[in-house]
Fold these 3 entries.
Entry 1:
Amino acid sequence: MSHALQDWHANPGGLPTMRWAREVHEDRFFAETAEDDFVGVQTYTRLDVNAPRIVGHLSAAVLRSRRLTQALVLPHLRRQAVAAVPTGEAPADGVRRTLMGYRWAPEAVGETIQRVANLFPGKEIVITEHGVATNQDTERIDYIREGLRAVHRLIGDGLPITGYVHWSMLDNWEWWDGYGPTYGLVAVDRTNQTRTIKPSARWYGDVARANRMPT
C-alpha cells in the first residue's frame, strides 16, 4: 500500500485538530502495512492547521465527541479545502499554489519520508508519487529538482530509500478535477490523443540516465 501523506504543521492552537486529522487520514493505515516489504510514500504538499492558542483546549474537548466533531470540525475542514481550490485569481493569502490549489512545497516529501523512517526504522522506503499540477513546464522541472534534492539529502543521511516515481507520465484524469490540472511529463491532446513530450520529460530522463543529482 502506498500512503498518501502530507507534511503537517500546526501552531499550539491547531495542534489537537492537526493530530486528529492526521490520525484519521494517515496514521490508522500504518498498522495495516507494518509487515510489508517496503513503505510506499506519496506526497505533494504541506498542510497548516493554525488557530489561536485558546482554541487548542476547546478543540481537544470537541474532538472527544464524535457528534461534535461531525457537526463542527468536519464542516470547517471542508470549507478550508474548498477555499484552497484555484479560481483563476491570485490567492488572497499570498501563498504560492499549484493548479490543484495545493501549497507549493516540493520539499514536503522529505519531511514525510523522515516521519516514516522514524515510525519504521530500517524499513525500505519508496517514493511512489511526487509531482506537481502546473501548466508551466519550467515549474515542473523546478518542483522535481527540489524534491529530488530533499530525497538525496536523506539518502546521504543513511535512510533506506530505494526508489522515486514521478507522477505522472501523462497528463491524467483527476477524480475531482478532470483533465484540468496537468501533472504529466507528456502532454495529451484529448481531441485526437496526440502525445507531446515536454522539456521536463527530457530533463528528467537525463537525470535518470546520469543517476546523479542535477545542478
Entry 2:
Amino acid sequence: MQVKAYGAYASDKPLESMDIYRREPGAEDVQIDIQYCGICHSDLHQVRSEWEGTHYPCVPGHEIVGRVTAVGGNVSGFKVGDIVGVGCMVDSCQHCASCDEGLEQYCENGFTPTYNGATDDEPGHTLGGYSQKIVVSQKFVLKVNHPEDQLAAVAPLLCAGITTYSPLRHWNVGPGKKVGIVGIGGLGHMGVKIAHALGAHTVAFTTSEKKREAALELGADEVIVSKNEDEMAAHANSFDFILNTVAASHNLDAFTNLLKRDGTMTLVGVPEHAHPSPAIGNLIFKRRSIAGSLIGGIAETQEMLDFCAKHNIVADIELISAEKINEAYERMLKSDVKYRFVIDNATLAG
C-alpha cells in the first residue's frame, strides 16, 4: 500500500514529502496508523550520512505511537483499535543467546532497525516512523497504557525512555542509591525523571547554570554545574552510579572521580570523536567501572512503558507539523528544544 512519508533522497538534501510503500500485513503482522513520532538525534546522524551506510530514500523515525488498524491471522496480543508503540527495532534473529534471553538489542546476528535496516520490503531497507503507517511483526509491537491525551509525549519513551531506563534497572538503581545523570537533554531529562521515580537520590549534572531550575523541576534532588570545580569536588567518591547521556567527546575523569568504590559510570551517548582516554588509576584504585548500554529488549521496553504509565512519566516535548522537520533538525543542533521534538503525523497528509 502507498502512504505519505517525510524523508531525504540524499545526505545533502532536505527532508521532503514522499510516497513510500508498506507491505500488506502477514499472518504475524500488526498494521499501525502512526499518530506521533519523536525526533531523535540518531535520525539526523543517519539521514545526513554522519553514520556510515545510509540507504536512500531515508525515512527516519523510531519513536512511534499509533493505533492498530489491522492484524494478521496469527496475532493474539493485539486487536484493531489498540494504542501501541514501536521503538528502535522491528526484527532480530530470534535464535541467538541474546534473543533467547529477551535481549534482542544485543542480537548476535544484528537486530533489524526500524529504519535503514535490510528487508525484503520495497525499497530493500526499512523505512521509519516519519510516515502515515507502518507494518511490524507482533513480537516488536508494544502496548501503550497512558491516557490518549499524553500520546504525543509518550512517543520519545520508545527510544529516550528505554535508553535511560535499561541501565538504571540493570545497575539496580533505587532507594538508598545516589545517582548522577550527566546532560539534561532528550535522554538526560528522561533519566532524571526515571531515576527519581525509582526512588534514588538523583543528582543532575549540567554545564549551564541556566538549567539548574529546570533540572530541579524534572525531579532532581540536587543539581551540579559540572564546570564549577568546587561543586564537583564536594561530591567526590559519593556516587553509586552515574548515567552519562552526553554524546559529545569530553573528559570522563571528572565524573569517574565522583564514583564510590565499586561505582559505575555507564555511557549511552556515542561521540562523533572518541573521548580522551580515561585515567586508569581512577578505576584501579577504587574498583570503579566505565560501562556502556544500548536500548532495551522488547520485554524490558514494555516494562518501562508500564512503569512510566504507573508513575505518570512522559517526555517534555514540542509538537510540530511535518513541514517543520528540517527546521527542527537545525534547532536540535543548537540544543534549542525542551527536550524532544515530536511530529504530529496527521500533518503528513497535507
Entry 3:
Amino acid sequence: MKKVLMIGTIALILSAALSGCQAGNKNSDTAANETKGTAITELWVGTKNTTRINTSDPVQAAVLVSRTLWTAKTDNNRPSSVVLTDVSNWQIAAASTDLIHHPSNGPVLFFDKENVPSVTLEELKRLKPLGAEGNDNIQIVIVGPVASSVEEQLNSLDMKIDKIEGDDPAAIAQAIDAYYAKAAGELPQAVIIGSMDSPEYTLPAVNWIAHMPEPLLYVKKGEIPAATAEALNKREGKAAIYVLGPDSMISSKIEEELKAYGSVTRIAGDNPYENAIAFAQYKDRNNDFGWGITTPGHNFSFLTTDSTMLAIAAAPFSHLGKHAPLIFTDKDGLPDSVMEYMMNVQPKFQKSPAEGPYNHAWITGGNGAVSASAQSVIDDMLEISPAAGGNPHAGH
C-alpha cells in the first residue's frame, strides 16, 4: 500500500508541475497528454527484465531518473550535488554528465532559457543535496549560459551554487574537465573525443563519463578547437585518447592530429546502432577504459537515436545501481545489429534459471518513442534461457 501511495503522490506532483513544461524533444503521445491536460498515470512501466521511464519529455524524464536512483530518504541515498543545465543545448548538457560522477554523485536536471520548471524545483527540494566534499560543499552546479530569472529561482532554494559559464561547447567541455579535476583532486589521463555535430554518434560517451571520471571533449569533423587542444595539453603528451565515431563523423586527419597529445584509438561503427554497440563492447586492458560487455549478466539503457536529451537525462543509469551502457534501438523493434548483440550476451542456464546471471534494461521514452511491442521484444531478448536451447522456462 505504501508503494501505491508514493507513486500516486509523485504523479500528482508531476502532473501539476508539468502543465507548463514544454521543453526539449517530445513525441506525439506526451504532447497529446499535455494538450489535453491529463497526467501520465504510469510513470514507470516494468516487465520482468525491463523498466521504462514512461515519458518523452526530457525535463520530466530527468526527474524520474533522479527519483529512481536517489530515494533521498537518508543521507546515504541523497546526492552530494546536482548538475543543472539548459535543455535546449545537447552539446553542453552531454559534457556536463561528467559531473554526475563522484564527488558530485548526483543527477543532471534541466531548465529552459528563462525558467526552471516547477517539477525541477520540486525535485531539488526533495533531494536536499548534501554538498560535495572536495568541492566546497557545493549543492548545485549550473553548467552553460543561464538567465538571471533562472538564477533568481534557484537562489530562492537557499542552496550553495556554483557556475561553469559560457556558451561554446568545446570551451565548456574544457572547463568541466578542469572543474572535475580540481574537485576530485586528479586529472584523468583518458579522454573521449566526440563530434559536436553528431549526437547520435557522440551520446554513447555520456554513460561512460557518468560512470567514470574521464571527460568528453569535442572536435568538429575537420577541426580541433583551441579549447580541446588546451585540455589535451594538460596531459603532457600522455593522454589516452578515444575517438568515438567513424571517419565520416571525425576525419582521419583529426585522428592524426590528435596523436600529438598521446595515444589515439578509434571506437566506431558504420551506423549509430553499431557505433553504440562497439563502445559497449570495447575494453582497453592497459587502463581498464571501456565497458567490455561481451558476456551475460549486465544492464543496458535503450533509447532511440532521435532521443538526444532523453539520453542525457538517462545517463545516471550508468552511475548507480545496475550500471548500464547506452544502446540505440528503433521505435518498433531491435535493429539487426542490436538483436545480434543481445543474442550474444543472452543469459544461459545449465540446470535452473535460478542460477543466473540475469540481464536487465532501462528504456527511456513513452510509447511514441519506444513502442510497447519493442519493449516486449527487448524483454524477450534479455530473458535467461537454457544452454541446451528450447523453452526458456524449461527447468522450472
